[in-house]
Design goal:
This protein has about 170 residues and is an alpha+beta fold. The protein is about 30% helix and about 25% strand. The protein is built from three helices and nine strands. It has a five-stranded antiparallel sheet with strand order 3-1-7-6-5. The radius of gyration is 22 Å and the shape is elongated. It starts with 6 loop residues before the first strand and ends with a strand. The N terminus is likely disordered.
């Protein structure tokens, strides 16, 4: 059986936040009744996603509103969206939780171990994308600093690539 969730949400963390210190904001939703652009912050330790942020382990529930395993700070949002069952898994880079991937159903359909394995594979793919975005951001920042340093140099600097001038400062 595949994962036939009624909705999917992805909650990426800030690139340099710590898993146990900072709330995350739901940024992407598919199938939600919430208006696009509406945000919801998830705090570590609170609710289903907060447990994932805190522990770094997948969590699921067959009835979020009645499940004593999770605090109820977000039960209103779950009810408003008609959610009954839900599962959330961590998006990790190098053992650090950088986001949470949620799936949920508006019917009492339980999520299975197979569903969890599928969602964990999706989270692994998302983690690769996050890591690549971090590398790209660092590379761009390094290039920006280098160009500022070279451009501000009092000595002439010329960078050649083959027979083409790639950069020359105004000194």
């Amino acid at each position: 059986s595949g994962c036939s969730a009624g909705r999917i949400s992805c909650v990426p963390r800030g690139l340099w936040s710590e898993a146990d210190e900072e709330a995350v904001t739901i940024r992407y939703r598919v199938g939600s009744r919430y208006a696009p652009g509406r945000t919801l912050s998830i705090e570590p330790g609170k609710g289903l996603g907060g447990q994932v942020l805190l522990t770094g382990r997948p969590c699921r529930t067959d009835d979020y509103a009645a499940d004593p395993a999770f605090s109820k700070e977000y039960v209103g949002a779950f009810r408003k969206d008609g959610i009954v069952t839900a599962m959330a898994v961590p998006i990790k880079t190098e053992e650090r939780v950088v986001g949470v991937l949620y799936v949920s159903n508006r019917s009492p359909r339980r999520f299975t171990d197979q569903d969890e394995r599928i969602l964990l594979r999706l989270a692994d793919s998302a983690a690769i994308a996050v890591k690549n975005a971090q590398f790209y951001a660092r590379e761009r920042e390094s290039e920006r600093r280098y160009r500022a340093l070279v451009a501000g140099s009092l000595q002439g600097v010329c960078i050649l690539h083959g027979f083409a001038t790639r950069f020359a400062n105004s000194a």
